[in-house]
Amino acid sequence: MKTLAAVCLLLLTAAPARPGSDLEPIEALIQQGRYAQAEQALRSLLAPSGKADYLLGFTLIQLYRFDEAEKSLRRSVEDQPTSIDRLHALAKSLLEQSKNLAAIEVLDRALAVESRPDLYFARAMCALNAGRDREAEKNLESSLSGQARNPEALYKLGKLKLDRGDYASAREHFVASLEDDPKHLEALFYLGVTELRLENAESSIQAFEQVLAVVPGHVGALYNLVRALQQMGRRDDARATLERFRQMSATQDEVDFLQQAVKKNPANIAGRVSLARKLLEVGKAETALEQALVARQLDPRRAVTYRLLAEAFGQLGRHSDAQQAEDFARRLEAGS
Amino acid sequence: MRRAPGLFSAAIALAAIACGSGDTETPVRREKTAPVRLFVDATDKARLDFVHDNGSTDRKYLPEIMGSGGSVIDYDGDGLFDLYLVQSGPVPGTDDTAPRPGNRLFRNLGDGTFADVTQRTGVGDSGYGMGSVAADYDNDGDTDLYVVNYGADVLLRNDGDGSFSDVTGEAGIKSPLWGSSASFFDSDRDGDLDLYVTNYLDFDLDKHVDCGSPSRGFVSYCSPDVYESVPDVFFRNLGDGTFEETTKAAGFIDTTGKGLGVVATDLTNDGWPDLYIANDATPNFLFRNLKDGTFEEAALWLGVGHNEDGTTEAGMGTSAGDVNADGWLDLLVTNLSAESNALYLGGDVFFTYNARAAGLYGPSYLYVGFGNHLQDLDNDADLDLLVTNGHVIDNIELLDDSQSFRQPTQVFWNDGSGHFEEVEPALIQDLAVPRVGRGTMTLDLGADGRLDAVVSYNNDRTRLFQNTWTGDGNWIGFVTGAANSRIEVETASGRQLKEVVLGSSYQTSSEPSLHFGLGSFQAAPKVVVASSVIPGRRRYLGLPAGRYYRLSSSDLAPGVAADQ
User: ipTM of this predicted complex?
Assistant: First the structure.
């Protein structure tokens, strides 16, 4: 259930601009995605300020140095305790370090200043990670009351309902999520799981086949397709699908091997890239995204990493992020 | 209270008188809001002073964090259940000069206290212990012990005179790998107990990897992904006090499992015991008994190898029970945090993953589950759930501020349909104190029909929790050591099914008696017994509640039972 959604939104969105600021040249660097130069410039400032700390924290988040980001952002929040942007960024740096409870505290401070759907959504992600399902549910509902057509929030709420065994409500939310984003693969997959539990085997098969049309090796879809075919008494089809699942499980063995390799050597960029690719093949986009993001942190100049990010974002239904990652890859390949 | 054979014979005679008269009451489902405590810590009172020593080092060798368990055993046949507790100590190779503490046997004195009889019984094996299982493997009428170690396992034969002998070599047992749990069962129904041992990882000090976050300056216990699996092992009992290792010949050919838990029980309702193995980070196994001395792995087809997302989980412990009273045994598997404990509902064709609908998904999400028991803890005629938790990363708080190393044991009420609701910690007070739980055993120490629990904590004192439930609820129990004896108790409110398993949960074996809550029934209207100790299937009508009955052919008076 761990999610990188919040910080990933930051990854490919524009940095906050402050027209007329003396930090404008540095902000321009951040806007251009030149984070290493931005960091250097911020650290060489003769007169650090709360805003400079905020920009540095923001920049460090892009560089996946969350513990350092947290320190800068805490200083920036001391400077402006009611700045929503600063509190939000601090919460994101905490969330990425799995400091879920600390992030909740910071988001509560932000929400006391302004009730914003994105803050409620971020809080819901923290609450989910912390196993506080009821809180997460409330936060998602609050987020949706301010931004009703948010497919990601609808999907997360559907998943919560599913995890609680409330299948009818789960289906409702997955369907609503897919209405807004028909390519949301996770919503589609769990819609299939839900339909299966509601004993609508044909509908579930339809959903799993749609998932498999996008990711032919999606192990979750294959696994559940077996169950759906069994439920319909189509034993031969079920056995054939089981074989496909087994084959993809062999890919899972490769995943396991690569996971070991990166555990033993966390700086193994090639290993992480391969791992992300294999994970995408078996439909584990969220974990793939995690690996691709770390690979990007280790070396931000590899086009292949951005292509993997684009694919992962795409599978997760985050199409604008996918497009931006794809653009980034093209720019790197063009040498710009 | 002592469970002497005479008592049981008398009880059966009463049953004959009451035959056919029991099914008259209207069952009443009790409100479970009574302001009482379900468990209290009776460790001090019982004089149980066993403290597990995991031999922890700064290097954080993985075996340190995985143990341990033990067994409930009536070693001297006095009708009182004793406790055998498994010790670890320094990991072999780290400090071979240090004295090894060894396992301990605590004799039940019958007054609520125990006495250490390790020395005089000769059961103080000092291997790096993980778990144990108690069973009469040589059919001589007393209960023996099998000790599962990180390293060579040990078979301790009960000599019937209050002492045990290490017969590992002469019995043909050779199991030198890192074992975790074991189960005795009669795989081929030839009247003697065969043995299955789950083995975990290929680890030794030379293969140790420093895990954790070196950049943040700390090391942690590794994930099992870092090490290769080692194969489980199966021993066929030759009936003369020796075993033959026939793992591959019996069909246990998949060596990819990182086995931690095992339960041997009839999952397919064909009268033959099957095997279910909880594997860590690899698919779980279900070995279907082919009734010819061999088994076929069928977990994937039957839907019990993965979770509902098609993902493998970190299987730790496992137990079986019919949680929804449909006549099929279901499977419970404890898993890692950020997963959930799994519940697979048995059925006539396949299993159905049901953790979500059963209400177990969310409440287990933050915890690392180990020992687990499906037992009726309040005698309301359904199976409740007890799960002991404790993380495997002792500095998990550095990695995630919403998790903790020490975690509470949880109890869940069953509403009778297989849906569970977590019991408020206030109700289980002592049991809910966060610790690093591993093996758990259930037993009825006072023979009062309220099941008590013994929980083994990693590197901490083992504790006895006395069930002090004061709500109403009648019960009936059956005493037997005969593996896979199956009993069904039918009342107007439904049918309960239980089977004797010798070794299950996590690294433990519990009291082999079968205990049934009866709710408001004063008698069990109908009891059906299928056991190797009684020919055929026998039916008993109107057995009075509130006592244990011993299953043995000599105790059955003519006319008491009618063949079904």
Answer: 0.90
